[in-house]
Specification:
Layout lengths: L2 H11 L1 H14 L7 H13 L3 E4 L8 E7 L5 E7 L29 H22 L3 E8 L8 H6 L8 E8 L3 E2 L2 E3 L1 E10 L15 H15 L8 E8 L11 E10 L2 H22 L2 E10 L6 H14 L6 H11 L4 H15 L4 H6 L15 E3 L5 H5 L4 E7 L10 H6 L3 H22 L2 H15 L19
Parallel strand pairs: 3-4, 3-5, 5-13, 7-12
Antiparallel strand pairs: 1-2, 2-4, 6-13, 8-10, 8-11, 9-10
Helix pairs in contact: 1-4, 1-14, 2-3, 2-4, 4-14, 6-7, 8-14, 8-15
């Protein structure tokens, strides 16, 4: 039996178990660092399938690895899995009408239920391939929590979890089938906490020192800062604690969270220091005190071109998910839920990817049924960030995109939640599993590719991985 046929047979044999796991994790919808049931389910399957488990890795209770070795155990291959959800996005499965399962509850708005289970299926297939063919090698499933929160992979990399791994593949639910050609921004985030003095805002306001005023002035300062940073950078904020709900009390405490992004980790560190100076200035103006709790930072993600050449060929061999008319009808129903301003942008995306002459065809059947080739000369900067970047600075790493939602779908939305527990996502995650598994076994037989991939990493990281967070920063399990 050919390699691909063997891997496909293993994945199809285990498909029901994998799809059931996707749907259960979708239902659990657990937030960053609290994915207890999701991690336990994935660990249970790994153990049933003969993997050796470690849990609580890198100081994170829901971080784990499942490892299987055969023969000499070399080379060592890794696959990344994620399984955290997003807050306030609860939505009924497969329903193209906004209808939460529980109002205000979390939902899988980035499809990490599919990401984690598709990656699991790939690891199981590689394990059976090693056994069946008596091939030397190790396959490790890395259970990575909190990608939507403060991240985990930078803490995992800092703890040396990837030090002896030769290469890693991962994937992400998407609207297209292609090797990810994105250069994702680096990011840093922190909670800024201000302390002042409470007082009666009507009777003796002169005795108060408002922490909320300090937060407001910090926002004003950061707004002025935006003109004086590179155009690719971003500054985001959210109120964590506004100091109470009584306007007649001078707020003696307030907490605001800031995140900054730039194309390179060196640039993001510089920008973050400028934001800290703005915060310090706000505290001086209001006669309050300020503390900054750095909690998250991701290195930029850049695709490994040596691995991309292998995976691109594997994706072509596996092909796009096989959609049927029911899938197209469901995708069109979801596409039609977007307002006109969003649809205008989606039409532009379709024209850019497929050509203007195919616009109406794709709008009628809005699921990507093609494989788009990878071009190393067209890696493009995108504004988003991912902790996969830190893995890529420690070991050769590649992300693969497979369609699990309608063309033009907006991530972090109720539409994405609904589609992540649907036949569309099921077909997409099984396709992703086949591509990753085939990429692993093709790469393991190419020491020249592995060496070239490692040289790419060394060129980027200067010879060793450096975590963007100091050792004093621990995983913010309950504070971020």
């Amino acid at each position: 039996m050919k390699d691909l046929e063997f891997l496909e047979s293993v994945i199809e044999k285990k498909a029901q178990k994998i799809l059931d796991a996707n749907d259960k994790i979708w239902e659990y919808a657990e937030l960053a660092f609290h994915e207890t049931k999701s991690a336990a389910l994935l660990c249970k399957i790994l153990e049933e399938e003969g993997f050796t488990l470690t849990t609580g890795d890198a100081g994170i209770p829901t971080c784990f690895t499942g490892t299987f070795s055969y023969g000499s155990g070399k080379p060592v291959m890794g696959i990344l899995g994620e399984y955290d959800a997003l807050s306030s996005l609860s939505q009924k499965a497969s329903l193209a009408e906004k209808s939460p399962v529980e109002a205000g509850a979390p939902g899988h708005g980035c499809g990490h239920c599919a990401l984690g289970t598709g990656a699991l299926a790939a690891a199981l297939a590689v394990k059976e391939y090693l056994e069946e063919n008596k091939k030397d090698g190790t396959i490790i499933y890395f259970g990575c929590p909190a990608e939507e929160g403060a991240g985990s992979k930078q803490f995992m990399a800092r703890a040396g979890m990837f030090d002896n791994v030769d290469f890693i593949y991962t994937w992400h639910p998407s609207t297209k089938n292609a090797i990810d050609n994105s250069h994702n921004n680096a990011i840093m985030g922190a909670n800024f906490e201000f302390h002042g003095v409470a007082a009666h805002a009507g009777g003796c306001p002169h005795l108060g020192r408002s922490a909320l005023d300090a937060v407001e002035l910090m926002n004003v300062g950061c707004n002025y800062l935006r003109e004086h940073m590179i155009p690719e950078a971003r500054i985001h904020y959210a109120y964590i604690d506004a100091g109470g709900t009584a306007p007649n009390v001078v707020q003696d405490h307030a907490v605001i969270r800031y995140e900054v992004r730039s194309p390179r980790v060196s640039q993001v560190k510089e920008l973050f220091e400028r934001v800290k100076k703005v915060a310090y200035g706000a505290s001086i103006m209001t006669d309050t005190t300020m503390s900054c709790e750095l909690a998250m930072a991701f290195t930029e993600y850049v695709p490994n071109c040596a691995l991309a050449a292998i995976a691109d060929q594997c994706l072509k061999e596996v092909g796009a998910p096989r959609w049927d008319e029911a899938d197209y009808a469901m995708a069109k129903a979801f596409l039609n839920t977007y307002p006109e301003i969003t649809m205008e942008n989606i039409r532009n995306q379709i024209v850019e990817m497929y050509g203007e002459e195919r616009l109406e065809e794709i709008l009628e059947k809005p699921l990507d049924s093609e494989v788009h080739p990878f071009n190393p000369d067209k890696i493009r900067l995108v504004a988003g960030s991912t902790d996969v970047g830190d893995v890529g600075y420690a070991v050769p790493t590649l992300n693969i995109n497979i369609a699990t939602a309608c063309v033009g779908n907006v991530g972090h939305s109720w539409q994405m939640v609904a589609q992540s527990c649907s036949p569309i996502a099921h077909k997409g995650l099984l396709t992703a599993a086949k591509v990753m598994a085939l990429s692993c076994i093709r790469t393991m037989d190419r020491p020249d590719v592995i060496e070239a991939a490692k040289k790419e990493v060394a060129k980027r990281n200067g010879g060793h991985y450096t975590c963007p967070l100091p050792d004093s920063v621990k995983p913010p399990l309950d504070t971020y």
